[in-house]
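Backbone-to-sequence.
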């Protein structure tokens, strides 16, 4: 009964806001721009709450001399003019601040999905000993002109990177050349991560374009990173120099605790700080921002898991491995998508010019997996952190379906072409729910053959456009159709030129794409996207919910209304880990504060959450908060105090976050 009464009180409280006349007299109208300072309140005797002594409505002027009345009204007129001028200045300043704090992705919000973004964290893996001292390249592309900021740890020289610009058609390209000193060494905490920020939505490709051992991988934006990962790679070939497996973890935030739970396929040990760690052991380290930790071992580390206290970027693969009877050793690298961004249904295409493709499935939890190759179907139950393999031939396509999310990688075996003998390469296969409807794809030069394979619904084939043109018949190298549930998907492999491509569907149908290249004693491959995009454009997917960070500052009442119009609710920030992830995004945008869905209820004498009228955790508040004050009835998390909560008048304007469970 008490809870029902509290909910009624909350409802009545917000109904009161509709008719409430807020007062400039409460405080300096500019204090929202100076929230780091303590605010003083100034009451004017001639204006208080309606119906209270001192209100102009109850001020009897008939008993005063006319001269005094004139003075009074003169003072009132002057005060009114000052208040009006102050209000106009406040609105103008607030407008300028809003423009200053607009997120850099506002213009291109339609593409805020999948692997595109504005902030990226990159690191590299060791490669074959003969080329490990060669430079690496990061390619950043966008279909609008953009600025870029590349940051290293203060402990690293800025001379370790250089940036060059290029334009192909209407695509802007910025290439970041990275010195080999930025490649992490094994079993050491080092300051070797690279932070990239762009002023418009961009795609980022990390490229190890080295002689005879190239590889490429899509880099996922920081807001898509998470804290749980499962690792997949190939089993190193016995007796092959530098054939080991390795994993790199790069930290986004300071004081990040990282636990690496090892799964090792043989009697081998990881050495760290004078200790040996084998199968089933756990390595725990603390990383600050820009720091990396890389492990390497001549064994298969597939099934190894990463668990971190804050979001991290994870890269994994083989230093150099040889697959099959053709070709030579090649490095195999992919950025690992986090567990909470994995999918359950996959279409796995073959690799043109490769007689066989190995498909490896890694499962973070126990589940049943069904996969079909042409008309042959197989069902298997896998345990937690287990991996399974199967193979497809050059003219076969596989379909994988699972009850729980999976990580799926394909590994192209050596080439059957007599003049190529191309080396293997690694690709993360996108799930059908990870498909998006627009990509910018970079195609490296100096490869004899380059291909793009598209997986899309058959009835949307005619809507697929490359650089706004249709597909030429002589580009086709492979085509097949597979059934997924009640839908039919086409798998279409095209020969493509080097350079850059903007690929989209004119009807907006999502599709998947992988890109790969082949040359003598070499090969590379990457995915267009392997991040689950269950949230609509502009929303961020964290765990089981979608979050929308507002582009403008609004009042508390308008924040509630805006979230309601999105069929969502104003975020209450009860989960500390998620609050930190959202705070990271707000910090990147330069926001000063964000509304919290909690308000002061006078009848209860304390702050309550709006959703269920439960009491707010006192640990959320900053020191001395919430302070008293008649009109300080709404809660704001402030950037300048590590997102601690402060009491504010509800009429003030701040950014807000909407939350919508998936």
């Amino acid at each position: 009964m008490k809870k029902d009464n509290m909910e009624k009180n909350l409802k009545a409280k917000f109904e009161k806001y509709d008719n409430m006349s807020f007062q400039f007299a409460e405080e300096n109208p500019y204090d929202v721009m100076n929230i780091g300072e303590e605010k003083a309140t100034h009451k004017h005797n001639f204006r208080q709450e309606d119906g209270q002594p001192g209100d102009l409505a109850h001020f009897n002027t008939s008993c005063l001399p006319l001269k005094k009345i004139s003075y009074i009204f003169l003072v009132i007129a002057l005060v009114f003019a000052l208040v009006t001028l102050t209000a106009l200045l406040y609105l103008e300043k607030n407008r300028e601040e809003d423009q200053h704090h607009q997120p850099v992705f506002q213009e291109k919000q339609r593409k805020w999905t999948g692997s595109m973004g504005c902030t990226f964290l990159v690191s590299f893996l060791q490669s074959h000993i003969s080329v490990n001292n060669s430079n690496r390249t990061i390619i950043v592309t966008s279909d609008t002109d953009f600025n870029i900021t590349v940051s290293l740890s203060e402990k690293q020289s800025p001379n370790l990177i250089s940036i060059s610009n290029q334009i192909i058609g209407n695509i802007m390209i910025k290439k970041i050349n990275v010195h080999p000193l930025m490649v992490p060494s094994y079993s050491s905490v080092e300051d070797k991560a690279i932070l990239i920020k762009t002023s418009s939505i961009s795609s980022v490709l990390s490229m190890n374009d080295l002689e005879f051992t190239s590889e490429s991988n899509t880099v996922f934006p920081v807001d898509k990173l998470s804290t749980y990962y499962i690792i997949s790679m190939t089993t190193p070939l016995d007796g092959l120099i530098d054939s080991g497996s390795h994993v790199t973890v790069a930290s986004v935030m300071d004081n990040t605790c990282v636990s690496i739970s090892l799964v090792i396929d043989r009697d081998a040990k990881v050495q760290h700080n004078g200790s040996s760690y084998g199968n089933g052991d756990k390595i725990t380290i603390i990383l600050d921002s820009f720091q990396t930790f890389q492990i390497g071992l001549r064994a298969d580390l597939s099934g190894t898991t990463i668990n971190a206290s804050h979001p991290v970027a994870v890269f994994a693969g083989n230093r150099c491995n040889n697959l099959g009877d053709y070709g030579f050793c090649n490095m195999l690298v992919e950025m690992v998508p986090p567990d909470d961004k994995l999918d359950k249904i996959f279409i796995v295409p073959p690799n043109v010019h490769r007689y066989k493709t190995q498909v490896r499935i890694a499962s973070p939890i126990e589940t049943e997996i069904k996969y079909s190759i042409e008309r042959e179907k197989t069902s298997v139950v896998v345990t937690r952190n287990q991996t399974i393999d199967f193979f497809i031939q050059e003219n076969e396509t596989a379909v994988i379906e699972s009850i729980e999310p999976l990580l799926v990688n394909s590994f192209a075996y050596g080439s059957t072409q007599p003049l190529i003998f191309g080396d293997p390469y690694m690709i993360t296969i996108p799930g059908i729910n990870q498909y998006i409807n627009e990509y910018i794809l970079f195609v490296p030069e100096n490869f004899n053959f380059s291909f793009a394979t598209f997986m899309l619904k058959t009835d949307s084939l005619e809507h697929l456009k490359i650089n706004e043109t249709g597909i030429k018949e002589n580009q086709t190298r492979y085509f097949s159709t597979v059934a997924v549930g009640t839908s039919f998907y086409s798998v279409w492999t095209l020969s493509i030129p080097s350079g850059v491509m903007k690929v989209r569907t004119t009807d907006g149908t999502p599709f998947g794409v992988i890109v790969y290249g082949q040359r003598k004693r070499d090969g590379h491959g990457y995915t267009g996207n392997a991040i689950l995009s269950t949230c609509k454009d502009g929303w961020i997917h964290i765990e089981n919910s979608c979050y929308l960070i507002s582009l403008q500052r609004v009042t508390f009442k308008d924040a509630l209304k805006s979230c309601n119009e999105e069929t969502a609710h104003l975020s209450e920030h009860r989960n500390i880990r998620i609050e930190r992830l959202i705070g990271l995004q707000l910090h990147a945008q330069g926001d000063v504060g964000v509304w919290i869905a909690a308000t002061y209820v006078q009848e209860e004498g304390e702050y309550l959450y709006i959703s269920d009228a439960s009491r707010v955790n006192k640990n959320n508040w900053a020191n001395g908060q919430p302070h008293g004050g008649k009109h300080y009835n709404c809660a704001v998390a402030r950037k300048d105090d590590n997102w601690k909560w402060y009491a504010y008048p509800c009429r003030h304007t701040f950014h807000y976050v909407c939350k919508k469970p998936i």
